[in-house]
Amino acid sequence: MSSTAVQDTVPTEVCDATRAANKIALIAHVTPDADCFGAIGAMYLALPELGKYPFASLPEGTVARRLAFLVELAGVRPASRQELAACDLAIVMDTAKDRRVNVDGKLEALPNAKIVNIDHHATNTRFGTWNWIEGDASSTAELVYLLIKSLGCQITPTIATLIYAGMHSDTQGFSLSNTTTRSLQIAGELAQAGADIIDTCEKLNRSRSRSEFELLKVIYTNTQVSDDGRLAWSTADCDEIAAAGCHANDIDDQVEVVRSIEGVKLAILFTEANQGKIRMNFRGERGVSALALAKEFGGGGHYASAGAILPGSIEEITDRVIPAAREFVKKLPA
């Protein structure tokens, strides 16, 4: 990718705002995933090259065990409330709605900060002072790579590893429909820059704890498939998650268990990590818009990967959502 292409991609105002700031808060969404940590970590390491002071918002209990290696790799120190309040700019990444920011007190806790909103969710509400939204990007980490390059900062081996982790995770190893020519080209550039691909993939894909494995057993046991084989769903309530030894930040990609069944066009995972709040992960296969169904329940996300949260019990929410999902699948082309 030429430097000209990078400059044409990154909005000038985003670069200007970053260069003009002094203390910069780095923020992602609640229950952060590898894309969040990759983006935060890469910016945390790149900004000091410009003479900036980065402060990462990682409230207590934020970091899932299996993703802690990304925080440790970047050497990220969670910022205090006082440090965040003193920031004059907040770069909010991978967060579609301002109420989803992973900050104690939400954005009101940063009274002096203007907002740079960088995201790849098509449903982003554009809550920033400056908004850079690319719904076709593989990940926010991909956009952060372009930003760092545009700012003239080095892509060190550590930064390359962090960005690669975010891209690999959000594309399921470059196997989903959000994999593009640009994302593959950037992945190649990251490899050339020294990204530790083997270790990163092992930690992301083959390093589950015993408790995480126990939770997978629950998901497998509770999986149901519609008679036509095109809809599948599973559940894990509060007691089952706790019995497995897991917490809210351990709920991430278990929906892939349901999605992996041959012939399934729509997969849904219902989880109750916090009692009385049911989180739904929707996944669509081969052109099926999971987002369309998620929106019916106040959710958002990407075309094929979306989510929503509703108050109630697992039974109440599945009784409400599964009939709608059956009707949704029934209307899909054969």
Question: What does the model show?
Answer:
The protein is α/β, with parallel strands linked by helices and 334 residues long. The chain folds into two domains: 3-205, inorganic pyrophosphatase (n-terminal core); 211-330, Diaminopimelate Epimerase, Chain A, domain 1, CATH 3.10.310. The protein contains 14 helices and eleven strands. α3 (34-46) runs parallel beside α6 (140-150). The protein starts with a helix and ends with a helix.
Overview features:
Diaminopimelate Epimerase, Chain A, domain 1, 334 residues, alpha/beta, 5-stranded parallel β-sheet, 6-stranded mixed β-sheet, inorganic pyrophosphatase (n-terminal core)
Question: Which helices and strands occur, and which strands form pairs?
Answer:
Layout lengths: L2 H7 L2 H9 L2 E5 L6 H13 L6 E4 L11 H7 L6 H5 L3 E5 L20 E6 L10 E4 L6 H11 L6 H14 L10 H12 L4 H9 L4 H13 L1 E2 L5 E6 L1 H6 L11 H5 L6 E9 L2 E8 L5 H6 L4 E2 L3 E7 L2 H17 L4
Parallel strand pairs: 1-2, 1-3, 3-4, 4-5, 7-8
Antiparallel strand pairs: 6-7, 8-9, 9-11, 10-11
Helix pairs in contact: 1-6, 3-4, 3-6, 3-7, 6-7, 7-8, 7-9
Number of individual domains: 2
Radius of gyration, in Å, reads: 20 Å
pLDDT < 50 stretches: none
Beta-strand percent range: 15-25%
Q: Class of the largest domain, according to the CATH hierarchy?
A: Alpha Beta
CATH fold call of the largest domain: inorganic pyrophosphatase (n-terminal core)
Shape: globular
Brief write-up:
Helices cover 40% and strands 17% of the residues. The protein has 334 residues and is α/β, with parallel strands linked by helices. The longest helix is centred in the last third of the chain and has 17 residues, at 314-330.
